[in-house]
User: Which sequence fits this backbone?
């Protein structure tokens, strides 16, 4: 096999055959059975077609009663701070929201689409349904609001731009991203539309170049552009593709550390930013932007077909360290025990930033894990090897924390929906790094630490394997690597750790993943190690799909 793409095709053949036998269609939600499989087969409506809408009245008729919409909007602003802080100015939206209920027919299709996007995301961010019938109802809600959102984008001719066109489109991309447990290449194509729409509307240029833009709109444009950059880095990286926006192609400034209440439509100039010791609406956007600028440089370096020097690698590593150091104090990493008085949103923001930092370290240094130093430069790559190992272990520690704290009763239970395909992709990469180290036996002094982390990760992957193809493959790879390292192929305590999380049928999945059928299966082991080595070789950085 010449590339990771060939390898992925090899592993996916069985799954692809199954999907081909039952093509996706509108009957996905005709019954409550196999909802997760149906959801995975849902294709983006904007790319593959959406039922045409007869009129604005038909769209408005799909809205729930106002008291229900009020609750959804509250949930959107309180649970989806990652999105809401950049897509809308709270006080302005509230005024427009009140005007809408007084005169629904006067609202633009794009504003109505924005409202449907908020409702849809609020449903996605709801607490897990208690039973299958409630889950079925929730999926029907998501499907309905997603359809109305796309119909509004089309009716409002989103490619023409205008008020809320980009914000509504960003929310739509986030909806499509959140309804899938595994990576979907279609989301990357939607990202391309989002980036091009943002550029076409001038978001890549700082508003200071356009005097006609009010200070309020200028600041919101800076927040929106920072979120476009974030999506580019994360989704392009997940697809193994270079980012779409490079350094030097934009000059939009960093947003100021201001609360929404500090801004209004009548002001003629922006107020001074609040100190970064104060947590504001924009603080998370500022922190993420600083880190993603460094991640963008790493992405460019690792995607380049031109070999760069180790000195260049270390310079970029310094940029990443500096960016992480510049994160404002309220978002500095803290233990869960030290965070008991903090909100779930703040804790999740800290974990996400640390997760991005570990991602950057692994991206930059994993190619040097097995590099040989010359006699003259003994230990030349020791820093990279340690940095990559520490980052992989740190990444899996975050996975363990999220696995524990997003359970019912955990500190992050209300944020359970935030653990999506991108974070799982990075956890998978960290898992493959550690699997490769165990396979190569190059870190014997820390092998116990690595094996312990892999055993914990294996339990998590096993529990996720029912809903995620990537999780199933990860659990297989880890099980085989641990078996070759001398560990047990199946440890029942991994299932017994949190019985409330695992349905009875998931135990069957677990046994299938690591059962006796794999004993002595050298072909399976070789295939899984090819996957591990492909991750380590850097082939997974480009053109996986």
Assistant:
């Amino acid at each position: 096999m010449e590339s990771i793409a060939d390898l992925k095709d090899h592993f996916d053949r069985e799954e692809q055959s199954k999907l081909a036998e039952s093509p996706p269609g509108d009957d996905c939600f005709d019954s409550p059975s196999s909802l997760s499989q149906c959801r995975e087969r849902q294709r983006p409506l904007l790319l593959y077609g959406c039922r045409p809408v007869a009129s604005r009245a038909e769209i408005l008729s799909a809205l729930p009663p106002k008291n229900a919409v009020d609750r959804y909007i509250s949930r959107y602003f309180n649970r989806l701070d990652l999105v809401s802080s950049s897509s809308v100015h709270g006080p302005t939206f509230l005024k427009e929201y009140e005007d809408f209920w007084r005169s629904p027919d006067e609202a633009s299709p794009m504003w109505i689409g924005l409202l449907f996007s908020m409702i849809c995301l609020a449903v996605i961010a709801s607490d897990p349904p208690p039973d299958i019938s409630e889950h079925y109802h929730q999926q029907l809600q998501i499907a309905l609001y997603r359809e109305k959102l796309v119909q509004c984008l089309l009716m409002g001719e989103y490619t023409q731009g205008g008020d809320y066109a980009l914000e509504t489109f960003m929310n739509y991309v986030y909806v499509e991203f959140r309804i899938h447990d595994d990576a979907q290449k279609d989301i990357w194509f939607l990202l391309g539309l989002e980036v091009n729409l943002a550029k076409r509307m001038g978001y890549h240029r700082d508003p200071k170049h356009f005097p006609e833009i009010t200070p309020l709109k200028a600041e919101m444009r800076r927040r929106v552009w920072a979120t476009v950059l974030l999506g580019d880095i994360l989704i392009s990286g997940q697809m193994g593709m270079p980012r779409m926006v490079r350094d030097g192609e934009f000059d939009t400034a960093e947003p100021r550390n201001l609360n929404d209440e500090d801004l209004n439509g009548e002001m003629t100039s922006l107020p001074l930013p609040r100190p970064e010791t104060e947590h504001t609406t924009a603080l998370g956007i500022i922190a993420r932007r600083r880190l993603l600028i460094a991640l963008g440089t790493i992405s460019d370096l690792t995607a380049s077909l031109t070999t760069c020097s180790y000195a260049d690698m270390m310079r970029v590593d310094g940029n990443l360290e500096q960016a992480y150091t510049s994160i404002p104090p309220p978002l500095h990493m803290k233990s869960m025990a030290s965070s008991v008085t903090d909100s779930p949103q703040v804790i999740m923001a800290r974990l996400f930033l640390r997760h991005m930092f570990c991602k950057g370290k692994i991206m930059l240094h994993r190619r040097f894990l097995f590099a040989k130093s010359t006699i003259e430069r003994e230990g030349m790559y020791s820093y990279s090897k340690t940095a990559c190992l520490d980052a992989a272990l740190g990444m899996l520690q975050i996975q363990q924390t999220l696995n524990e704290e997003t359970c019912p009763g955990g500190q992050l239970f209300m944020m359970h929906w935030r653990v999506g395909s991108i974070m799982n992709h990075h956890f998978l990469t960290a898992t493959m790094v550690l699997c490769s180290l165990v396979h190569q036996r190059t870190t014997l002094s820390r092998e116990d630490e690595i094996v312990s982390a892999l055993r914990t990760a294996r339990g998590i992957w096993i529990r996720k394997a029912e809903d995620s193809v990537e999780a199933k493959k990860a659990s297989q790879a880890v099980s085989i690597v641990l078996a070759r390292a001398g560990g047990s192929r199946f440890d029942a305590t991994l299932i017994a750790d949190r019985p409330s999380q695992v349905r009875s049928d998931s135990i069957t999945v677990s046994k299938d993943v690591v059962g006796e059928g794999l004993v002595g299966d050298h072909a399976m082991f070789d295939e899984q190690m090819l996957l591990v080595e492909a991750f380590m070789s850097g082939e997974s950085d480009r053109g996986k799909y």
